[in-house]
Design a protein that fits this description.
Helix content is 33%, strand content 27%. The protein is an alpha/beta fold. Strand 5 and strand 6 form a beta hairpin.
Length: 285
């Protein structure tokens, strides 16, 4: 039986046994794309041999980046997703009936095409939803367009690790463009690495966000195949905060009313995600 290894972190690797032949293995203009079924983790996509999504645990990532800010906000109508070509996050955002538009901007159209074909069980509804608009473009450039200014209630950065084409989605200029594209009272959420192996990502991201946003912070989720335990999700607010007692209470009421079907997110997890272990709290500037 063949296996696929990920060596994202220095001195550490994880290996997955592949069930059957690879479903996709090709080089796009930007990266090497592999999609395959595994013995333990369902269907998996890697980009440049780094795990991006598995059907077994994608909910812990997509639901927490999406439902947590949307339920606290309460009136999200327009969402932008940076990256997210597998459409797992788009699928979650479109579960909210008040949403009028979800704009997904991914630089690699081949990722979107392959995920439409091979992850249909997860994203078929999203692809059929008329509220979804897919732009095959550089999200950094898209955020700087005049039509993006002050347009979105929520921007979700489903960015890869800061290597290759993902490098432009980190740093001051990127955060400045995110701020410009948000409406007043809007939120942005970001993948910020696994602090056990990437502690610097938290400190750097929150220092940079603090230069642009009046409010920012951190919350946690656990995605087993993003190896290393906790995954850090950072957030920024344009006139509002996430994780306040009032916001958590409001989100719990909205969740109950919405009758959302989730696999990871619930109001108790929402509240608990803002509790940081002491070693992670020390990374917050």
């Amino acid at each position: 039986m063949t296996s696929v290894k990920e060596r994202l972190h220095k001195g550490y690797a994880q290996s997955m046994e592949v069930a059957g032949a690879l479903l996709a293995d090709e080089k796009s203009r930007y990266q090497r794309i592999k999609i395959f079924d595994t013995v333990a983790n369902g269907r998996v996509m890697t980009l440049d041999d780094i795990v991006q999504i598995t059907t077994r645990d994608e909910s812990a990532y997509a639901e927490m980046l999406t439902h947590l800010p949307m339920l606290e906000h309460g009136k999200v109508e327009r969402v932008m997703i940076v990256g997210g070509g597998d459409l797992s996050i788009a699928d979650e955002a479109l579960k909210h009936k008040g949403v009028k538009e979800v704009v997904l901007v991914d630089i690699d159209g081949r990722v979107v095409e392959l995920c439409k074909e091979l992850f249909a069980e997860m994203n078929a509804k999203a692809f059929k939803d008329r509220r979804l608009k897919i732009e095959i473009a550089d999200a950094f450039e898209y955020l700087g367009r005049p039509e993006s200014k002050g347009r979105f209630d929520l921007i979700i950065a489903d960015r890869p690790d800061p290597v290759g084409p993902g490098k432009a989605l980190f740093g001051d200029t990127f955060y400045g463009r995110v701020k410009g594209a948000l409406k007043k009272g809007g939120f942005a959420t970001f993948q910020t690495g696994v602090p056990f192996y990437q502690p610097w990502e938290i400190t750097e991201a929150l220092e940079e966000l603090g230069r642009f946003f009046p409010q920012s912070g951190l919350y946690l989720t656990v995605v087993p195949t993003y190896i290393g335990g906790f995954m850090a999700l950072s957030w920024a607010g344009k006139g509002a905060r996430l994780g306040t007692p009032a916001g958590i209470k409001r989100a719990a009421a909205a969740y109950k009313k919405s009758k959302l079907k989730t696999d990871y997110y619930n109001p108790a997890v929402h509240a608990a995600s803002f509790a940081l272990p002491e070693w992670i709290a020390r990374l917050v500037p």
